[in-house]
Structures are given as C-alpha cells and as structure tokens.
Automatic annotation (TrEMBL):
Its cofactor is heme. One of its GO terms (molecular function) is catalase activity. The active site is at H83, N156. The lineage of its organism: Bacteria, Bacillati, Actinomycetota, Actinomycetes, Micromonosporales. This is Catalase. Heme binds at R80, R120, F169, R367, Y371, R378.
C-alpha cells in the first residue's frame, strides 16, 4: 500500500539531515523504512515487471526493472588475482608494552594500548568459491587501525616464500594456478606446471617443503602460525634500529588436518574454515594469537649467524633469536557484510606507521608496488581508502582529489602545498615531532645490475633444516605428500627432475618418494650437517587448550552423557549430538554427520548403521580420540575397531577426553595404521 505519512524514523532523518550533512560518506544510507529506488523513490511492488497487460511484453519504460537488473548484473567485483578465497573478522590488539625498546610504533610500544584490527585469512591459489581445506599456503593479513594511521602486516602461515625476487611472482602464480587451456585443477599444486616450475626454480625448495608439510592443511585458522616472512626494520624513539621478523603464535597451538580428512572435507564442507571462524566468534569462542618478534642487530651486512636476512627463502631459527611476545590479538566480531568488509578490504605493505620501515628484500620491494596497483582494477580506482573497511581511524587530509567513486565533497580551492589560500583549514606537513613518517637515513649504493646476492644461491640448507626438525610422523606426511603430488603429474620428466632436487635435501626422503613413484632414487649432495630447530615441529608432548574443538556424541540427547558434555563445554569445546533422527537437542543425524567435522567422537549407543560405521572408521584412521559409553562398545565392534587400541577411551570422564583432545591426535595410534597405509599405497 502506498504510504501517506512518513514514519517517525524517516521524519527524524529528514529533520536532522540537512542536504550538506547527508553528503558525508555513508550517512543515512540504506536506513529508510520503505523500499525505494536508488534515487529514493518509494516502490509499491518489486515482484512484477511493468507489462502491457498480464500476458503482454515488458515495457522499456520500467525504470525500476532496469535499475534493479542493471545493478545486479554488476554486483561482482574482480576477485583477487591471488588469495581470492578468504574470510575475515574484526578484533582487538593489545600491546604488552615491551616492544618500546625497539620501536616507537605506538600500537606496539604503549603498554595496554588497544588497537582495532581486521584480519583476513585466505588460501592462495583457488578461486573465490574454492574449498577451504585444500593443500596450500594460507594468507594471514592483518590491518591495524592505529592512531597514527593504518599498518598492514600482510603475512602467510609459512615463514618463507617460493621466490626471492618479486619479478618472478607472475611466473610462480601462472605455474601454480590452473592450466590455462582447461582451467583445471582448481586450488591445487598437484599438477604438472607447478612441479615443472619448482623443479626448475630450486630457490622454491624450502617453501615446497612447507607446502608439502602439515602446515598446508591447517585444522582451522585458529590453529595456524602467521609470519611476516620478510625482515622489517624497527626504529625506536631514540632513532635506534633493529632488524625484526614478525610472528603470530596461536594460543590454541599449531594443528593440522590429516590429508585424507582435508580431501573429504573439501567436498563435505567446502566452507570448513570460514564456518569455524564465524561460528566460533558467534559462540564467544574467540580466536587468539600472540604477536611476537625476533630481534636481530641492524648490521651492515644484514645477516645473522650467517643467514641473509634479506632472503625471503630463509628463516632465523627460534633457538638463535627467540620470538618475544609483544601483544595479543583477539578476534571477537564477525563482519556484517562479506562484500563490504572481507571482499573490499585492501591490504598494502606500504601502509606503514612511524617506527616500522621496510628492508631491501627484493620480494618485499616488489610487493610495495603490487598491492597498490592491484586495487585500481579490483576496487575500481584510486579512492578505495574511502571505503568504510579501509578508512583510517587517524584523521586524513591528503590533498588527493576527484577520481572514480570519490565520495568526499572537498572544500577549498587550493589542494596543493604550499599555498596561500587555504588559511587555517589546509593541511600542513608534519615533521617527526608531530608524528610525521621520516625514514631513518641509510646509505644506498651499488651498481645497477639484475643480480642476486651470492648467499641467495643456497637453496637447500634450510629445506633440510626444516625437514630434520620435524617429528617422524610429520616427516612421513611430507614423504606422502611429495609422492601424492608427483604421482598426479603426467610428465615423467618432471618427477625425475624433482627427485634430483629432493636428493639435495635428504637421501632417505628421496629414496622413499622415489619408491612410491616407482623410480630410481638419484644421488645428490645434501647438506653435510644440519642443526635442527625443535621449535619448527608441531607434534610435541604439549597439551593445548581445547577451545573451539568439536566433539560428536553418537546417541540420543539423554544418553547419559550430560555431565561429560557439560564439562567439555565449560572448557570451550563444542559438543554435537549425533542421533538416528532429528529432534530436540540433536544437531546432526546419522545421515548428515561425517567424521571430518569432529575432533573426537563419543559413541554412547548400539547401532550397526553403515554411516556410523564409516564415521567411526574414519575417526579411527585419522587418529582421533574415541570415547565409548554403555552399549557403544557394540557399535565399535560393528565398525571392527579394537577397543584396546590407543586412544579408545572406555567410559571416559571429561578430563581424560579433554587431555586427549589437547594433544590433537592419538599419535600412538599412527604407527599401527602405517602398515595398512603402506600396503594400500603400493
Ligand atoms: Fe601477496 N598479493 N604478493 N604475498 N598476498 C596479494 O594483493 C604479491 C607475497 C599475501 O587478504 C595481492 O590485494 C606479489 C608474500 C596475502 O586481501 C597482490 C608478491 C606474502 C594476500 C599480491 C607477493 C604474500 C596477498 C592480490 C611477490 C606473504 C591477501 C590482491 C613479490 C608474506 C591479502 C591484493 C588479503 C595478496 C602481490 C608475495 C601475502 C596481487 C607481487 C611473500 C596474505 O597485490
């Protein structure tokens, strides 16, 4: 019905929004009570086109039809050329204050200072709609809305990168993304062009080891480490400098999916990580990370214990430079609108604040160009900083003018400096005493060349360091991943060449992968001596908090597991009852549940339902704790699972289940599974 009287809200808005004020960005947008056109015209009907009679043709004069469809046709913006698939959340970063000795950046240096952040996690290779759990590096990009302007820490969940010079980025991405003729495979490295590239560009070897490790299949974004990768230069209030690497340490520990689990999940729940992030925040089970820094002296040669700090294929082992925690990040708010916030956020390495400078790492230098440039086509012009998600919380007065999608109505006639016309209104330059960003003077000299430092030629020592630092189970996973991925290549020559690369890292690993591929193991020259870095291993004896871990209880809601469920919940775990059919208190049925969504399973009823059998067998194979209560032992027997196997807990109390969950997997069970896996693979 056509409204005749404006609603109280509309009236209030009309009274308090003089035309001038309504020009301020976003003010009063999309708040009216009535459906309107984009011009504010109220609409009585949005379900029927204007036609010449009910059976007649649609009329060109239907401006509402044309506006609605035109806007819809242009809803999508180009996806990110890399890191297209991602999801994000808001949070708060609180500084511990101990970083003041190395940086004057207020958000790090001032004890207790709270800074708003937005974090976007992502995969690198897949398109926007691809699955979350594919084998890939994950992006870990953080925008700090600091009082001094935005600072972006655009990192990954692996501390090294495939290439040493930004000029090769298009090449590695062309090779790693789908084949251009058929546009397959989606979001995977298990194909010829990727292995062709990395076997020919051996600087990629270290990152390839990380990509074949469990780090490439995280359990959730909650259980990933983050790394700034490059070395940055921090500057303190006295002008003293230090070379620094940034780390995000997950409070929940670093945990991964089993490879088979990751593959099943890609089909069963392609939104697995995205869902976990959003659901956890909704449930108040916030993701938490500590920001840490490794601090190295700012020496002339920019090396530390012989490690070239400008080489992004190298880490500094934590045993040589401990990661010092400097603040804590809590992700505590979901975005309201995926497009406006997660899709339109624009990160850039050049978003810096006083106290943080870049180094000459040639990968970092190229990124300083790329992240600004890419927004011009993604976000349609140079005014993307005005989008709500990208706006600085510090006052902005930049003298930039006009351009596509300019939403500011600038005043004044003199957008240039110096000028004699702006009077007190115009911006004036700010020296360092006013918080202006001033680079620490550094001598730059050298011949103009296309060349790398000599130290960049060492492509293998740190791949070996990484491999030798891992637990035997993690090493096995790397062998299996290389074997899996290379088996998927069509070209034998690529497999053979990659084996010759692996031979320069470790002979044992090469022999195992070669055996899996049915090829002879080549000889290489692996590093003679490797000092492991235990901090790199993710499987240790340590038990971690179980916040956000999911326990499936097979039974009816009243199957006598109430006390167990309650205690697990108070420790932050999520409990889902899996019953034969739906009903009050039932979150999954036998038909809808799949093992991959649970970190542990408790079976509390007797059933020989085949879907429950598969669920238990998968949970067993993926080394998850399994609790058995009451008649559940019959279900276990129907699934052919030995009740005396490690990690099968009879009548578990919540504590023993929580302890097992805190270890992430029943690692003692893994060797039992190995012979079967080996014979299946041969
Ligand atoms: Fe990126 N990268 N990158 N990258 N990168 C982008 O920027 C690029 C690199 C990383 O959630 C793009 O806005 C070049 C390293 C993350 O929005 C683009 C090089 C690391 C994200 C771009 C690198 C990263 C991106 C695509 C080689 C880890 C997602 C869209 C010099 C330290 C950020 C965009 C988000 C995104 C270029 C290498 C991390 C094209 C040229 C090394 C987490 O600008």
């Amino acid at each position: 019905m056509e409204p005749t009287v404006p609603s109280p809200k509309a009236k209030e808005e009309a009274e308090t929004s003089p035309v001038k004020e309504s020009l301020a960005p976003a003010r009063g947008l999309q708040t009216g009570d009535y459906l309107t056109t984009a011009q504010g015209l109220r609409l009585p009907d949005t379900d029927h086109s204007l036609k010449a009679g009910p059976r007649g043709p649609s009329l060109l004069e239907d401006f509402h039809l044309r506006e609605k469809i035109t806007h819809f046709d242009h809803e999508r913006i180009p996806e990110r050329v890399v890191h297209a698939r991602g999801s994000g959340a808001y949070g708060t970063f609180t500084a511990y204050g101990n970083a003041a000795s190395v940086t004057k950046a207020g958000f790090l240096a001032e004890k207790g200072r709270e800074t708003d952040v937005f974090v976007r996690f992502s995969t690198v290779l897949g398109s926007r709609g691809s699955a979350d759990t594919v084998r890939d590096t994950r992006g870990f990009a953080v925008k700090f809305y600091t009082a001094e302007g935005n600072f972006d820490l655009v990192g990954n969940n692996m501390p090294v990168f495939f290439i040493q010079d930004a000029i090769k980025f298009p090449d590695v991405i062309h090779a790693a993304k789908w084949h251009p003729d058929r546009e397959i495979p989606q979001a995977q490295t298990a194909h010829d062009t990727f292995w062709d590239f990395v076997s020919l560009h051996t600087e990629a070897t270290h990152h390839v080891f990380w990509a074949m490790s469990d780090r490439a299949v995280p359990r959730s974004y909650r259980t990933m480490e983050g790394f700034g990768v490059h070395t940055f230069r921090l500057v303190n209030a006295e002008g003293g400098t230090a070379l620094v690497k940034f780390h995000w340490k997950p409070v929940a520990g670093v945990h991964s999916l089993a490879w088979e689990e990751a593959q099943i999940t890609a089909g069963v729940d392609p939104d697995f990580h995205r869902r976990d992030l959003a659901d956890s925040i909704d449930a108040g089970l916030f993701y938490e990370f500590e920001l840490g820094i490794q601090v190295m002296p700012d020496s002339d040669d920019e090396t530390f214990h012989g490690i070239d700090l400008l080489d992004p294929t190298k880490i500094v082992p934590e045993e040589l430079a401990p990661v010092q925690p400097v603040g804590k990040l809590v992700l505590n708010r979901n975005p309201d609108n995926f497009h406006a916030e997660t899709e339109q956020i624009a990160f850039h390495l050049g978003h810096l604040v006083p106290g943080i400078e870049v180094t000459n790492d040639p990968l970092l230098q190229g990124r300083l160009f790329s992240y600004l440039d890419t927004q011009l086509s993604r976000l349609g012009g140079p005014n993307f900083a005005q989008l709500p998600i990208n706006r600085s919380q510090a006052p902005v007065n930049d003298n930039h003018r006009d351009g596509l999608h300019q939403s500011v109505v600038h005043r004044g006639v003199a957008p240039y400096l110096p000028n004699s016309l702006s009077g007190p209104e115009g911006p004036v330059p700010a020296g360092p005493e006013k918080g202006g960003y001033v680079n620490v003077p550094r001598l730059v000299h050298g011949e103009k060349v296309r060349a790398n430092p000599v130290s960049f030629a060492d492509h293998y020592s740190q791949a070996a360091l990484f491999y030798h630092s891992l637990s035997p189970i993690e090493q096995d996973h790397i062998v299996e991943a290389f074997t899996f991925e290379l088996s998927k290549c069509y070209e034998q020559a690529i497999r053979v060449r990659m084996l010759s690369v692996l031979a320069n890292v470790d002979a044992g690993l090469t022999a195992e992968v070669a055996a899996g591929l049915g090829l002879p193991a080549p000889e290489g020259t692996p590093p003679a001596q490797v000092t492991p870095s235990p901090a790199l291993a993710q499987i240790t004896d340590r038990a971690w908090p179980i916040t956000g871990r999911v326990v499936g209880v097979i039974g009816t809601p009243d199957a006598g597991t109430a006390a167990l469920q309650q205690t697990l919940k108070t420790q932050g775990a999520v409990v889902r009852v899996i019953a034969p059919v739906g009903g009050e208190g039932v979150e999954r049925t036998f038909q809808t549940a799949r093992s991959v969504e649970f970190d542990a399973v408790v079976v509390a009823m007797a059933t020989d339902n085949p879907q429950v059998t598969v669920l238990l067998q998968e949970a067993y194979r993926h080394a998850k704790p399994i609790g058995v209560q009451g008649a559940g032992d019959r279900t276990l027997a129907a699934a052919g699972i030995d009740p005396k196997a490690p990690g099968i807990l009879t009548d578990p109390d919540a504590e023993s289940l929580a302890t097992a969950l805190g270890q992430h997997r029943v690692w003692d069970r893994v060797p039992l599974l190995k012979p079967a896996a080996a014979s299946a693979g041969s």
